[in-house]
Amino acid sequence: MGSDQTTAARAAARTVAPAAAPATAAPATWCPSGEALAPESVVLGVRSGSDGQVVYLADPVPASEVLGTLPQGIEPTRVLRFASHCVSACANRRGDDCSLVERVLTLPSATADTRAVPRCHLRTRCQWWQQSGVAACHRCPAVTTATFREDELATLVADPSTTPEQLAAWIADSA
Predict the structure, then answer these.
(1) Percent of the chain having pLDDT more than 70?
(2) Contact between 82 and 34 (Cβ < 8 Å)
(3) How far apart are the first and last CA of the chain?
(4) Which stretches does DSSP call E strand in the chain?
């Protein structure tokens, strides 16, 4: 194609209407405490050490590649944290916000929140980051997706009907 034809082809391409957006656009944000079995789910990190803090993976790994490798009888959320699309049908969703991160931020921090935030491949698309910024990143490693009946505080935090005020009252009563 000659240069005049190339220039004409480029000009014609610029005048063509853009392609229509896909009927189902991808969600804008991801949940850092997501569903392990969601089709798009990735492993965010691994629970590690005696305190069970999440150690984040440098790169996402599709959950579907990991779930089949866990020993039978091990609940995936007991050892892994997953990220998946933040969806409007989530019990923790309130309008455009996540009430779970609000409850998590109500909890007293075990360490000063002036430290560097952990490296996280999800941050640019994370609902918690977009909603609460660095405060959410400081608390995120301590969040567990699996709750156990004997851990009353974790059960309260996980319950979408619990308000930050109720959590604060429970913490004050337990002190």
Answers:
(1) 71
(2) yes
(3) 79
(4) 30-31, 42-48, 53-62, 80-85, 93-94, 97-98
